[in-house]
Amino acid sequence: MDPAGSYDNGSFQVMNQVYGFLMNFVPGTGELKTDLAEHCEFSAPTVYTCVLKPNLKFANGNELTSSDVKFSFDRENVINDPNGPQSLLANLAHIATPDPLTVAFTLKLPNDQTFPQVLATNAGPVVDEEVFPPDGLLDDNAIAEAEPFAGPFTMTTHRKNELIGLKANTEYRGLLGEPKTQLVGLKYYANSDNLKLDIANRAIDVAWRSLSPTDIEGLRRNPNLVVHEGPGGELRYIGFNMVTMPGSTPEQKLAVRQAVASSINREALSRDVYKGTYSPAYSVVPESIAGANEAFKDIYGEKPDVAKARQYLERAGLPIPVRLNLQYNPDHYGVSSSEEYAAIKGQLDATGLFDVNLQSTEWVTYTKERVADAYPLYQLGWFPDFPDADNYLTPFFLPDNFVGNHFEDDEITKLITEEATEADPGRRTAMIGRIQDLMASSHISTLPLLTGKQIAVAGKDIDGVLLDKSFKFQFTPLRKVS
Fold first, then answer.
1. Is the domain covering 232-453 a CATH 3.10.105.10 domain?
2. Smallest Cα–Cα separation from 413: which of 440, 388, 442, 393?
């Protein structure tokens, strides 16, 4: 629960309910607006200034001032935890607090179009400097006991990975308003089978994430339930290690990637594996995000083209079949990963152009070996920090990116830097389109496969399940109706 040491969806789901943010997204529309802040704006090209609402307090009664805000962001960079969100603050130079209500963020690059959204992400929770240490992480139980929460809920119960009890925080004065339900219980499940049983039998009111496509298909037929769908922002990829993948030259390696791109049947993966809960993805930016195009469909086609794939390999002088060592993780990216990657192997092998050696690795080992050049081709997934195309570009394609696959290109770096700081929407959209086109035609460091819808299953008597483009599932609108 310490924001300085948490950069995962499960932790962020809880943090969204209990911590306050300077900026947040309106449930239902996903529109970015001020939360704890009265207003925020660029006061200079490299200075983003926020003024807090007056008389803010944490649930424990401590005052919330600009000093707490500065403390919150500074400690993330000071602690620099390997599991923390500080990479989102890469453009932050320093913070000033000219008075108790004013926070001035000085940025390294001017006109950062993403920074206001970053304030609503994993990097954005405002914590109580009277509770949290400045240079180390605080234990979850100590956090729960101290109630250093400025969000719409505070915590009544905390049993790690089992149960969290929430109650409405009477000190909250932010965008999300007073919760429609004063008490909310958050239960954790070790496997999706028990989650499915409990929602089917109405032992719980809402099931969120981790249900398999088969589970969802079955729950749709339950007359007491509603399956809610929201815009998809999650992407599933094949990642290519630009050094260890097959091919003796950069040209041969690109030909292999182009041939793979010409051989995958995304529609079959969507239909047969994911029962339509994931849709084909034809760009490194998913279709739900402004500025997305379908560059991979334009270049490689909507359906597999084995003749074109063979051409790529033969022109590059590659022996056929090409041996592909493909690695995946069976649990972290969902319970259907094994079926998905067996289908991918089957599709590639069926072309006669590839001989796929498919292997799986448990997550703890996978995360270490993936960035240590152990896997020439591998499964990759992404859930966005905020709903902007840049969040699908900067983490993947700038030097020293999180993918760790040795991709670097001067033109792509220049374009990404420019789009992130371009204030004109039309020009920025054109740059984002150009990046997508180049990644599909000339690079393919990652191959987008599928984009996932947001899915929540709730009882018919539950109102306020709002799944929007922000990808935040807020509890404040939830209520039971007769």
1. yes
2. 393
Q: Give the residue range(s) of CATH 3.90.76.10 domains in the chain.
A: 3-151
41-94 residue pLDDT tens: 999 999 999 999 999 999 999 999 999 999 999 999 999 998 899 989 999 999
Q: What is the pLDDT of residues 139-187, one digit of tens each?
A: 999 999 999 999 999 999 999 889 999 999 999 999 999 999 999 999 9
Q: In the CATH scheme, what architecture does the domain 3-151 have?
A: Alpha-Beta Complex (3.90)
CA angle 455, 377, 269 (to 5 degrees): 35
Q: With contact defined as beta carbons under 8 Å apart, do 69 and 23 qualify?
A: no
138/2 Cα distance (integer angstroms): 6
Residue 399 CA to chain centroid, in angstroms? 20
Q: Rounded to an integer, what distance in angstroms lies between the CA atom of residue 184 and that of residue 478?
A: 9
Contacts of 361 (CB under 8 A, 6+ apart): 327, 328, 329, 369
Residue 359, Cβ density class (10 Å: 0-12 exposed, 13-18 middle, ≥19 buried): exposed
Q: Could you give the residue range(s) of every CATH 3.10.105.10 domain in the chain? A: 232-453
pTM for this structure?
0.90
* Residue range 237-288, pLDDT digits in tens: 999 999 999 999 999 999 999 999 999 999 999 999 999 999 999 999 999 9
379, 341 Cβ separation under 8 angstroms: yes
